[in-house]
Amino acid sequence: MKCDNCGKHYRRKITKTQAVWMCAGYLTLGKEYCPSKQIPETVLENQVQAVTSDITTIKEIIVADKNTLRFVMKDGQTISRQRKDRSRSESWTPEMREAARQSAIRRRKSDG
Ligand SMILES: [Zn+2]
CA 94 to CA 25: how far, in whole Å? Predict the structure, then answer.
């Protein structure tokens, strides 16, 4: 997993609340060196699952910016994935909340 800002690799870090991935340039040299953002591991896992069910088919993951991941596959194709930033709760509409709730219920049911 590589940072597109500075070319360094991402590292896994455990915070109080969750596991996140952060650019090594950002970690060791600060945000002046690399303004990349941390990515929660749950987000990363979701994006990986959206691209492939077999993680071994991924050659490399490049973090283009905080919302864009570029997956370089072993067969040579590149897949870009963008995620909506929903960290600000005020951006949630009641419809979005309801949709998220419904899909969470569906997911729980399908987990059986
Ligand atoms: Zn970086």
Answer: 39
- Give a yes or no: residue 78 inside a domain: yes
pLDDT tens, position by position, 97-112: 888 888 888 877 766 6
Does residue 90 lie within any of the structural domains?
A: no
The answer to whether residue 53 is domain-embedded is yes
Q: 109 or 51: whose pLDDT is higher? A: 51
Report the number of distinct structural domains present in the chain: 1
- Residue 90 binned pLDDT confidence (cut-offs 50, 70, 90): low
Alpha-helical segments (H) within 3-111: 24-29, 41-51, 94-111
Do 68 and 80 meet the contact criterion of CB atoms below 8 Å apart? yes
Domain ranges, residue 29: 2-85
Report how far ligand 1's centroid is from the alpha carbon of 54 (Å): 26
- What distance in angstroms lies between residue 10's CA and the mean position of ligand 1's atoms? 8
Q: How far is the CA of 72 from the centre of ligand 1 (A)?
A: 18
Does the predicted TM-score (pTM) go above 0.90? no
